[in-house]
Amino acid sequence: GENVEQHPSTLSVQEGDSAVIKCTYSDSASNYFPWYKQELGKRPQLIIDIRSNVGEKKDQRIAVTLNKTAKHFSLHITETQPEDSAVYFCAATTGGGADGLTFGKGTHLIIQP
Amino acid sequence: AAGVIQSPRHLIKEKRETATLKCYPIPRHDTVYWYQQGPGQDPQFLISFYEKMQSDKGSIPDRFSAQQFSDYHSELNMSSLELGDSALYFCASSLRGYLNTEAFFGQGTRLTVV
């Protein structure tokens, strides 16, 4: 099955700086890579996603890059703000539209004021 | 906009009891997923249904079963509960298409087994 590795497990950055979270996946058939933000005790919320036919996607301060050859994808957050503090999960899935997501272990992002 | 509705929000059960969790997907969504998230852990995929048929199976214990009904709501049945089953259980729904589409998560059911 799919295996997703995520690094770092904890990331502390100064407010206004950039944050980068990296993930690798094992199954070359994976074709959909969402990123979720989860606050303590709340539901995961999609912040951005990328499909295997695209190399980069940007949405305001958030961007995701995908390297299919190397089987890794990264989340970039620029101009970080206190409300960006949360746990971020990357995920991957293969096959059809109803296949479950395999999540990384999560990154606890801490924005220092 | 309507979201994924899960009930109950909180549930306390004793060991060896049975629990039933319910999920009502976003209207017109035809796919439902169940995830289990332990404290400080990532969500673990349990099972999914598309058009009332089981579509994908993850790490769902044999003590658990699930189904999707004609109105697309889904229920996760958990029997012989163990202390280790204490977790947040999320349901997510999506509209299946040629390409994977965004899965929207419900607020979760917090199950505590004592």
Question: Any overview of this molecule?
Answer:
- The complex is a heterodimer of chains A (about 110) and B (about 110).
- With about 110 residues, chain A is mainly β.
- Chain A is about 0% helix and about 60% strand.
- Chain A has no helices and 11 strands.
- In chain A, strands 2, 4, 5, 9, 10 and 11 form a 6-stranded mixed beta sheet that branches. Chain A has a 5-stranded antiparallel beta sheet with strand order 1-3-8-7-6, with no helix packed on it.
- In chain A, strand 9 and strand 10 form a beta hairpin.
- The relative contact order of chain A is 0.34.
- The mean pLDDT of chain A is about 95.
- With about 110 residues, chain B is mainly beta.
- In chain B, the strands form 2 sheets. In chain B, strands 2, 4, 5, 6, 9, 10 and 11 form a 7-stranded mixed beta sheet that branches. In chain B, strands 1-3-8-7 form a 4-stranded antiparallel beta sheet, with no helix packed on it.
- In chain B, a hairpin with a 5-residue loop joins strand 7 and strand 8.
- Chains A and B meet through strand 4, strand 5 and strand 10 of A and strand 4, strand 5, strand 9 and strand 10 of B.
> How large is the count of helical segments of chain A?
0
**Strand residue percentage of chain A:** over 45%
Mean pLDDT of chain A, to the nearest integer, reads 93
- The backbone outline of chain B, from C-alpha atoms, is globular
Unreliable spans of chain B are none
Distance between the termini of chain A: 41 Å
- Name the helix and strand elements of chain A from N-terminus to C-terminus, one letter apiece: EEEEEEEEEEE
Average of pLDDT of chain B: 93
Biggest interface and which pair forms it? Answer: A-B, 26 and 32 residues
Supply the helix-strand structural class of chain B: mainly beta
Indicate the proportion of strand residues of chain B: over 45%
